[in-house]
Amino acid sequence: MEGIGLLQMLELRLELLLSVLGSLLATLVIGFLFSRIIRRSLRRYNPLLAEATARYGSWAIYMVGILFSLELLNLKLETILVFVVLIGVLVVIGLRDILPNYFAKQIIDMYKPFNVGDWVKIEEIVGKVVEINDLYTQVVTRSHARVYIPNNLLVKHTISNLSKAGGIDVTARISVPLSRSLDDIISTIEKAISEEAREEGTGDSEIQVVSLNAKTVELEVKVRILNPQRVEDVRSRVLRKIYRALETELKG
């Protein structure tokens, strides 16, 4: 009799275990299908809403499935709630450095201050955004260095999107002898740098007088370019063109 009772108990335990495993498996399948269906049906209308609904909805399904599976083990509701709270606290503690970056990524996705491919300036870092993931944003600088910036820092600091601003200014200062009128000098330089500005696709250039005395004038030349990676190259080309233009005028 004792052997029969033990066998029945094992059968009941096995049935209970199979029920719990079946419940967990069904939860995983339902959560996965819910996520796929929501993403496919809503993505064409609102990708951000589709992603958020699919992600958080599937998490809710998983949580309900886990609670249901725990109830199959005949645990009291209070015990289940304590278990869930403890698990939640442990998860939050374990992810305390990850969660701020993850939620910052959601803010970046919502407001889109920049996209992959944009040139940005973050504090002293100027570079091209090549990747945005849940933890960090990867930027390649003009010197080809790869910088990994945690997303939570991006929502705390000022970000300048150079691509959306229409480019970046390349500045150069030159000192020119006053061998002829100031207007003629500026006109010659304008012709030289306007060609460079057109080649860069902006057409924006500017000349400002910084200082002036009886013998020389100091000028600041600005040319706006679309690709910040070419700052030094453009500055060098601008100075060479100005020098050649002034030299040609003097010889003429």
Automatic annotation (TrEMBL):
InterPro entries assigned to the protein according to its UniProt record, in alphabetical order: LSM_dom_sf (IPR010920), MscS_archaea/bacteria_type (IPR045275), MscS_beta-dom_sf (IPR023408), MscS_channel_2nd (IPR006685)
The entry's keywords: Membrane, Transmembrane, Transmembrane helix
Cross-referenced PANTHER family: SMALL-CONDUCTANCE MECHANOSENSITIVE CHANNEL (PTHR30221:SF1)
Entry GO CC: membrane
Main location: membrane
TM stretches of this protein: 16-35, 56-73, 79-99
The keyword Iron is annotated on this UniProt entry: no
A Pfam match: MS_channel_2nd
Residues annotated as domain Mechanosensitive ion channel MscS: 98-164
GO MF, one example: mechanosensitive monoatomic ion channel activity
Organism: Infirmifilum uzonense
Name by which UniProt lists this protein: Mechanosensitive ion channel MscS domain-containing protein
SUPFAM superfamilies: Sm-like ribonucleoproteins (SSF50182)
Subcellular location: Membrane
